[in-house]
TrEMBL record:
The gene is COA5. Belongs to the PET191 family. GO terms for cellular component: mitochondrion. Involved in an early step of the mitochondrial complex IV assembly process. PANTHER family: CYTOCHROME C OXIDASE ASSEMBLY FACTOR 5. One of its GO terms (biological process) is leukocyte differentiation. Keywords: Disulfide bond. The keyword DNA repair does not apply. The keyword Disulfide bond applies. It comes from Chelonoidis abingdonii. This is Cytochrome c oxidase assembly factor 5. The lineage of its organism: Eukaryota, Metazoa, Chordata, Craniata, Vertebrata.
């Protein structure tokens, strides 16, 4: 579920949509807000796992030679 921002400038990097959603998910978790842990620690504990897998698949598809024909995964 991508989040689109009208007032935000476009990020030209690969997998920018998934990256932004993963970042927002981590910053909104109770692990970061209530416990005061860093987003990296919360990611290692297993928060936002589906977005982490999507981001990994998107980055991995950049190295895959078949991605030239199929396009990158993600949004």
């Amino acid at each position: 579920m991508p989040k689109y921002y009208e007032e935000k400038e476009e990020d030209g990097r690969a997998c920018a949509g998934v990256r932004e959603d993963l970042r927002q998910c981590l910053l909104e978790t109770p692990c970061v807000i209530q416990e005061g842990k860093s987003p990296r620690q919360c990611l290692k504990e297993g928060h936002c796992k589906s977005l982490q897998v999507s981001f990994f698949e998107c980055k991995r598809s950049m190295l895959d030679a078949r991605a030239r024909f199929r396009g990158r995964k993600g949004y």
